[in-house]
Amino acid sequence: MSLGMKMMRKTMLKVSKSQLTFEETVERVRENARKVGWNVPNVLDLQKHYTEHGFGDMSRATVIYFCNPRGGYDISRDDEFKPMFVMMPTGVCVYETSTGEVQVARMNLGFMSVMFGGIVRRTLKEGGFKLERALEGITAA
């Protein structure tokens, strides 16, 4: 892995080992997201999606999409921030490694918040806090 990719992974993404099985992790992430105030508009089984499109078997991977309609709406009211729609809703990916470990990956919204000001900063900071709360009891400390 290149130095740039390592730096990006350390700053833009967070990856944590799950303490649960794959199925338990997906279900608990969905439940906990709702408990802390997220909407979950979509769940995508990537393994199924890729194999349905003719690609060989792969390890399990599921993306659970987290949405904060109020925050997204507030950000999108200003044309300057509409490009941020590409990050909405934000995905949390539960996947298995080649060794069978269950990992949880997500964007580091708290870190990303410092790149912005105003409503965007507040929304990303709050979103990062709520996202991590949704993973409490699932990921290793």
Topology:
Elements: H1 3-12, E1 13-17, H2 22-35, E2 39-45, H3 46-52, E3 61-67, H4 69-76, E4 90-96, E5 102-107, H5 109-113, H6 118-134
Antiparallel strand pairs: 1-5, 2-3, 3-4, 4-5
Helix pairs in contact: 2-6, 4-6
Low-confidence stretches: none
User: Radius of gyration over alpha carbons?
Assistant: 16 Å
What is the number of independent domains?
Answer: 1
CATH class: Alpha Beta
| Helix-strand pattern | HEHEHEHEEHH
**What is the beta-strand fraction?**
15-25%
Q: Give the CATH superfamily.
A: TT1751-like domain
The number of E-state strands comes to 5
Euclidean distance between termini CA atoms:
25 Å
- Give the biggest sheet: 5 strands, antiparallel
Decide which structural class fits the backbone. Answer: alpha+beta
- Report mean pLDDT, rounded to a whole number: 92
> Strand order within the widest sheet?
1-5-4-3-2
CATH architecture type:
2-Layer Sandwich
Number of helices: 6
Q: Can you tell me the overall shape?
A: globular
* CATH fold type: TATA-Binding Protein
Helical amount among residues, as a percent range?
Answer: 40-55%
Using brief descriptors, characterize the structure shown.
5 strands; 5-stranded antiparallel beta sheet; alpha+beta; 43% helix; 141 residues; TATA-Binding Protein
